[in-house]
User: What shape does this take?
Amino acid sequence: MLGDLAGAADEAAVLLARARATPGASQANRQGGHAGSDGSRRSLIRHLANYAAAAALAEQHRGHGGRPIRGDAGHGGRLLDVGSGVGALAAWLAHRLGWDVTLVDADPLVRRVASAAFPHAGIEAHLERVPDGSAALVTAMEVVEHVPAAAQPGFVAALRAKVAPGGLLVVSTPDESGYPGAWSGYAPHVGVLDAGGLERLLRGHAGPDAIVWRLEGEVFALDGVRRLLHPLVNRAWGLAAGAAPGACHTLGGWVAGVLGRVRPGGRVRTDDVRLVPPAEGSGTGLLGVVRVPAA
Assistant: This one.
């Protein structure tokens, strides 16, 4: 279903390199999603798999009668990516679908980098500035866990409001329930969700027919070493970043590199990544899908 992830990663790496070459990229977005957050190929593929799954779902939905609205530039539809970071992965997804793209991110440095790297994208600081019902596909990839639990219902309801009739909302989040204390130790993750929690959140506030899938595969595996090492490294990153905020980008790239090397073998597998029902696997990726009825 996800197609050639290795080839997609090569394409996305070019877009990430464009963002990294933009002045100011080294200081952009200190809570993840910055131009260096996908410093290892494993990390890139893990993040990209969310977007590849969204592309496959959108294409499948369109083939079954989904009717995305036309984009401003006359393409097939509009993608809205919320919490986009510098926008490289959303730019990849928009290119694959042949759609226009709007990026939403609260960080002004991120928006500056995104604007320079992807000048044809629409860019907004706040979701409220995006018209309701204006996007055929709305994505929020690994963003909801950065939102406090009390604010998550309003957040997903606002995402749902931006989806055009006949469109899709896709929300991803890491499943941290396998870590000690059900938390990866990454300080910005203040609203972690397991599969059941994500399903209840989406069904209660975005659509009663929401479906949650699990992303399974080697890049989403949580073995004993990672289960213990990730929280330790993440906590160390949090302490160091608190003492030297300006070093967050460098530290983030270092953390991604360290964690990316903690895997069996010397090759990052992509051929085993797949979507399965949450109860049928143990992969750490969760993907929630809400289909909005056509008008």
In short: Strands lie at 78-82, 100-104, 122-124, 135-141, 163-174, 211-216, 274-276, 285-291. DSSP finds eight helices and eight strands in the chain.
